[in-house]
Amino acid sequence: MPSGQPPLTAPRPDFRSRREILGTSIEHRRGHIITMKVLKLIVDWGAKIQLHIGAAALFAIVVSMTAGVITRFFGHPFDWTEELCTVLFVWLSFMGAGVAAQQRRHICVDYIVAKVSPKAARTVKIVTLILVLVFLVVLFGGAVKFLPKTIYARTVALGIPRTVSYIPVAICSFYMFFAYLYDLLTELRFGAGDKA
Question: Does residue 13 belong to any structural domain of this protein?
Fold first, then answer.
């Protein structure tokens, strides 16, 4: 070695103790588990709330239609029953869609997934979930942008703002985003099934 030059030494690697490495890993895993539990709690409670709203809407539809039939029989029909049933049916449909998302009951065509390897099927599922999430973001953004435009428009018979018919679109797309986000994170973490 020529004189006047410092000796060549490799920089000392940053050795962390096994406990530090495991601690970091455990903290990361614990944070992920807490996130998944909170997300699962939001999805489950959201489904319960939507289920009750949907059940109330169905009950109100039955009562409203029955009242309409009875009053029509006596020659003095209510003119608001059809309009009320239309609004309630919109609520029932979108609340039901949210519950179906939580229970994974939406129609799924698995022709392609059944023909490919498990690894490719998992990739298709992940890409599909990402596309669904993008669609729900666009749907929610469109609903929120459209709602203020319908505040001053009134229904003919009831005279209520037409916004009432469009609110469930925003609620459902917002909720379904979290339901499918939970599915995506579960798929990324575990591969399949509800294991969180």
Answer: no
- Backbone φ and ψ of 55, nearest 5°: -65, -40
Q: Tell me which residue range forms the domain holding 58.
A: 19-190
Residue 11 tokens, joined: 């920089």
| CA pseudo-torsion sign 125, 187, 94, 171 | negative
| Total number of domains constituting the chain | 1
Which residue do the tokens 């179906």 mark? 100
pLDDT digits (tens, 9 = 90+) for 41-55: 999 999 999 999 999
Reported pTM = 0.77
CA 7 to chain centre: 62
Type of residue found at 51: L
- pLDDT surpassing 90 at residue 110: no
Assess if residue 9 is contained within a domain. no
Helical H runs in 74-110? 81-102
Domain-embedded: residue 70: yes
